[in-house]
Write a structure and sequence with these properties.
With 647 residues, this protein is α/β, with parallel strands linked by helices. It has four domains: 8-125 and 255-293, Response regulator (Rossmann fold, 3-Layer(aba) Sandwich); 132-245, Response regulator (Rossmann fold, 3-Layer(aba) Sandwich), CATH 3.40.50.2300; 316-366, no CATH class; 377-639, Rhopdopsin 7-helix transmembrane proteins (Up-down Bundle), CATH 1.20.1070. It contains 18 helices and 22 strands. Helix 14 packs antiparallel against helix 15 and helix 16 (570-594) packs antiparallel against helix 17. The termini are far apart. The strands form seven sheets. It has an eight-stranded mixed beta sheet with strand order 2-1-3-4-5-11-12-13, sandwiched between helices. A three-stranded antiparallel beta sheet has the order 6-7-8. The chain has a three-stranded mixed beta sheet with strand order 20-22-21.
Length: 647
């Protein structure tokens, strides 16, 4: 049963001392080896009670175990098999003593063969006794007048059975068939064991014997226990190659034949030898089977698969069924991040931190790495937009340099306009630091560069707004002195001072809690998301808050100057640009918080590009339109002309 991995079986045994002892030995062996499970164990009643047999066969029929081991001497096998036939219990693999198989098969082979064919059994070892046939042929009456057995029966030279008075005929007798000696072979080995023991005893030298006082036993004084001593010491091999010896418990080395009930092509049956089991001196057990000769009940040349539950393949684990034997279980697929790489694994093991389970859950694979890459469509698109924005800034700057002497450029504070264009370039370019695999230097630079660039940009806008208001106030009687506070040096100083505050904030942030690259596995457990940890949330909030404060102040001042009477009032453009800027960054905060992994970086890049394009288009679009397409309006008179005052 172990050879063919039949782990789910039933056991039928005689309801007597022999059967119960065999059952307990069977049970203890299962417990010792941890192999196989009994679906049921039923005692066969000695009186062959029909009700008892009916109940037992019903248990066999309803059980899922398709292997039935029978410990029975064969005498009551007929009644058991009659009930099996009556209930039509087919498809079973019987494993029993050979007497059980032969007894039932010889009784009614045509009836039992559909149920018993393919059965496997064990039998006393068959062996050859050299010279036995010649000895039988030489037996003659009168050779030994005192031997009554020889005078009763003998075999003549022609193979005929004869007696001292008459010839019994010419039929061959079974006495000459020495091809299947089992019980006789056992007697032969027993006789030789005794002979070897007596021989060893006679070789004993007085004074060197194994008994008290180093004495020896003699044929005249031998005691049974002395003969047992020599029997335990024997160790010889028969002519058939079988070893004969006894262990410390006076048990002979076991050796038995494995038999199989085969159904031959002509419809007849035959109990044939298909192997043997033996246990050598080294205590190593050996089962030798000629599997190609075994006839199976299924009619195939392969043994049936007889288990309660199929083995759990790698990637699954065994889950015991409550209240059922250990051979009955379910196979549960390992959870994500866990694997099992052995058959019938009892538990799944977790993969290392940077690894994840394969789809089959049978091995760990490196986790996929995710970040906003230059090689993916999203990263390529954002990079392209960033470079386009930088190019547009360069083009606008080129237009302003080329037309620097025109009223449109000179009237709008050309120095601050150039500074604003340079800061917008930096805003577009700083977005590239958010793309690519995060590293320590990119994490430290990305937010610092972003914060300083936008503060420089918004500072220029704030100063331009303040200059617009100062010019308007100075045009009123008695207010000419106000322009002294908004000269070129003051404008540069204000922009530099406001930007320096942001630089100090960034330095303090980087020194106290610098942003660092981080492998995040919280978003997707099967991925490693590379991102930059901000280090200090307070530092990041102060950086954004300072930009927002300057933007809000610029918006308020520009809103106050929106109704100035000039035909080309830049305050209106600043107001609209600040509206766009604030709207983008207000929308950015919830989008950034709710975006996982690389999409958080993408949202921040999008906010940078959207606000930068908003400032570039709103502040410089109308000016470039007039410079390039409406040169007739690019005059001092047209720009400084007064429109109707709005209330």
């Amino acid at each position: 049963m172990r050879r063919f991995e039949w782990t789910w079986f039933g056991l039928l045994y005689h309801d007597d001392d022999f059967g119960h002892d065999a059952f307990h030995i069977f049970q203890s062996e299962l417990a010792r080896t941890g192999w196989g499970c009994m679906a049921y164990a039923e005692p066969i009643p000695l009186d062959s009670n029909p009700a008892g047999l009916q109940r037992i066969v019903s248990v066999v029929k309803t059980s899922t175990a398709r292997v039935v081991a029978v410990i029975e001497n064969g005498i009551r096998a007929i009644k058991l098999m009659d009930e099996v036939v009556r209930q039509k219990v087919t498809g079973l693999q019987w494993v029993a003593g050979v007497q059980f198989i032969e007894h039932t098969n010889d009784h009614s082979p045509g009836v039992y063969i559909p149920y018993l064919r393919g059965s496997l059994g064990v039998s006393i070892r068959q062996g050859d006794i050299p010279g036995l046939r010649d000895f039988l042929l030489k037996i003659r009456p009168g050779n030994n007048p005192d031997n009554s057995h020889e005078n009763t029966l003998w075999v003549d030279a022609g193979g005929r059975v004869c007696t001292g008075q008459e010839d019994l005929g010419t039929a061959e007798t079974k006495l000459l068939d020495v091809s299947d000696l089992r019980g006789e072979y056992n007697v032969y080995k027993a006789a030789y064991a005794l002979a070897h023991a007596l021989h060893d005893m006679l070789q004993c030298v007085p004074g060197r014997g194994p008994f008290t006082g180093h004495s020896c036993a003699t044929l005249q004084t031998i005691q049974p226990w002395q003969l047992v001593y020599y029997l335990q010491e024997i160790n010889f091999t028969t002519s058939a190659g079988d070893q004969v010896s006894f262990n410390e418990n006076s048990e002979a080395s076991p050796i038995v034949d494995v038999m199989n009930l085969a159904w031959l092509p002509d419809g007849s049956t035959k109990v044939q030898n298909v192997g043997l089991y033996k246990k050598s001196e080294s205590a190593s057990e050996e089962l030798i089977l000629d599997e190609d000769r075994i006839f199976w009940n299924s009619g195939t040349n392969k043994p049936p698969r007889l288990v309660c539950s199929e083995s759990c393949s790698p990637g699954t684990r065994v889950a015991r069924r409550k209240g059922e034997p250990v051979c009955c279980f379910d196979c549960i697929t390992c959870s994500e991040g866990e694997i099992s790489n052995e058959t019938d694994s009892t538990e799944c093991t977790s993969c290392p931190e940077d690894f994840w389970s394969s789809p089959q859950r049978d091995h760990c694979v490196p986790k996929s790495v995710e970040f906003l890459s230059y090689h993916e469509p999203l990263g390529i698109s954002l990079t392209t937009i960033s470079l386009i924005g930088t190019l547009f800034c360069a083009i606008v700057m080129g237009i302003f340099i080329y037309y620097r002497d025109t009223p449109m450029v000179r009237a709008n504070n050309s120095e601050l306009s150039f500074q604003l264009l340079m800061s917008l370039k930096l805003c577009f370019l700083c977005s590239l630091l958010f793309i690519g695999r995060p590293r320590l230097w990119t994490c430290q630079l990305r937010h610092a560069t972003f914060g300083i660039s936008f503060v420089l940009c918004v500072s220029c806008i704030l100063v331009k707004t303040m200059v617009v208001l100062a010019v308007f106030k100075a045009s009123k009687p008695g207010s000419s002195e106000i322009l002294r506070f908004f000269g070129t040096i003051q404008q540069r100083g204000t922009v530099l001072g406001l930007t320096s505050i942001q630089a100090i904030i960034c330095i303090a942030w980087l020194v106290s809690a610098s942003p660092t690259p981080h492998k995040n596995t919280q978003y997707n457990s099967d991925k490693i998301v590379y991102e930059c940890e901000v280090g200090s949330t307070v530092g990041f909030a102060v950086l954004l808050g300072y930009i927002g404060l300057l933007a809000l102040l610029s918006f308020l001042l520009a809103f106050m100057a929106r109704n100035l009477p000039d035909n080309f009032n830049e305050a209106k453009l600043i107001t609209f640009s600040m509206l766009i800027f604030c709207a983008v960054w207000i929308a950015f905060i919830p989008a950034y918080i709710s975006s996982p992994g690389k999409y958080a970086d993408a949202v921040e890049v999008f906010a940078i590009l959207a606000s930068s394009f908003g400032l570039l288009v709103v502040l410089f679009g109308p000016k470039c339109y007039i410079i390039l397409l409406k040169p007739d309006r690019n005059t001092k008179k047209s720009i400084m002309g007064r429109g109707a005052t709005k209330t």
